[in-house]
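BUG: 3D viewer hangs when loading the predicted structure for this chain

Environment: internal workstation, default settings.
Expected: structure renders.
Actual: progress bar stalls at 90%.

Input used:
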Amino acid sequence: MFNKKVSKKAKIIIFFVAIIAGVWLALNFIMIGPGLPPPKVMPDWYIPRYDDWQGNRNSCISSFPNNISPYCNVGKFSDENFINVWYFDGESNFLTGEDVLYHYLKENGNLSQQEINISTEIQEVYKKEMAENTSWEPLVPHLLNITEYTSHETSGYFIVYEKPFLKTREDYFIVYYGTMDKQNFTEEKPLLKKLIVESYYMVNEYGKVDGLRES
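Structure tokens produced before the viewer hung:
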């Protein structure tokens, strides 16, 4: 009788463990597998979710050409600061769009390739998590190669995320962390760096994070 009760209890435990494991695998499959969102909503991936973010979904900021990518979105953090994201579902489309964008930027403002340090912003964003677990380290590099852009209309940072999900998936993003406050770009830089930390995503070890290619 005792052995039968133990056996029945063990079966119940195994059953629930199997369910939990199945759910965990399914969630991971959905997050970085074929269950990823369709191209038209992929730009949202790099726009953090805040209650005070303003809409403007499925549209791009008018400061840039509208033929960079059909998949574009902007999230406004304030009247001046925003994140603009272009998504590309293939390398060829990405290279074409990047080339269109780069030539436009070169003609309408100033470009410079830089390495920025976002250590302070990482500490600010993950202050609570790092305080609770001193050995925990967020998967955000402290140094990033970016392209800085300044113009009479907007200034900010461009970052390119190549294949952030899987080595076998053709996913490319160009993300612009910008401000319309042209007179105080230097003062806005810490906020833009914080937005970079909050939206950063790269889980593929073969992926690449860099600035725009010069062309």
